[in-house]
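INTERNAL AUDIT FORM
Audit reference: QA-55
Scope: verify that the stored structure record matches its stored sequence.
Auditor: D.O.
Record contents follow.
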Amino acid sequence: QVQLVESGGGLVQAGGSLRLSCTVSGTIFSRNDMGWYRQAPGKLRRELVARVASGGSTYYADSAKGRFTISRDDAKNTVYLQMNSLKPEDTAVYYCNVIVAAVPVYSWGQGTQVTVSA
């Protein structure tokens, strides 16, 4: 059974930084593409924020470019999201997941809340 455990969220002022972590168990982490998603308040859909392939290539949503950095540590089965220059519109619950063919594969974890105050 695959488990996704996110951490690192919190309350931060606009312009601040946070580093999110997601530890994955139950799958061969190094073979998987990984993504960070977020679900903003009042929104039903989770949006992809960033993705890192098993080979290390990355993708960022336009909203994240230049501010967020996704990385992975295969030895620790962990994917990270460094978020800088945070804005109030980044407020959301952030989730990670394994991505196959552009689709998140597993049941979502509990997520980690990020709140950015103006």
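Auditor finding: record pair retrieved intact. The chain has no helices and eleven strands.
Action required: none
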